[in-house]
Design goal:
By secondary structure, the protein is mostly helical. 79% of the residues lie in helices and 0% in strands. It contains 8 helices and no strands. α4 runs antiparallel to α5. Pfam families: PAP2.
Amino acid sequence: MQHKSSTFLLRCSGVLLMLFLFLTYGVVTGATLALDEALIQRVSMLEHPFLTAMLIALSFIGSTIPVVVLSAVMLLILYLFTKKKRDVIFFVAVSLCSVTLNVLLKSYFERERPSIIEMIEETGFSYPSAHAMAAFTLYGAVTFLLWRHLKKRKSRRFLVGAAASIILLMGFSRIYLGVHYPSDVIGGYLVSGALLTISIFIYQFIEHNIP
């Protein structure tokens, strides 16, 4: 069973990484630009004062200081719920790796942000989206750790549904507000997915081989 799980995780990580590299090639060569701009314009047609206010608030929650505070709260909840230091270490390690990887990738690709619609002002480079990466990593890691301790199917479904909703809304908010191309968000999801699955593989390996 453990062997099957490990193989599945490694395959998922490999597929996600390959998709990220494929998308990155499209971004670097400009192949995705026309579709990116068309999708931003299409999303802008949904503009509504209430939706804008809600997504600005959600986007703010994904900024640096709120994420640090939210991470601290999640760490406390994890420790109180699971009573395992290993879970806390896993969460911290994955979060730090995600932040570091995002900084390195943005510095390497230096993609400028879109200028079609700018509802809020953002600085820094665009690819991949830090908000998308942070959301996928944080909520993905928490979902993995809590899932193991939830026995009821309804509880697990709620956990996955809530995490997926937040992750998708966070990415959508960045496109809606005009500060990221859709490919920035998708790239963030893909590279974070690869990071998270390989991290889970390492976690399970340590759990089963190191007392």
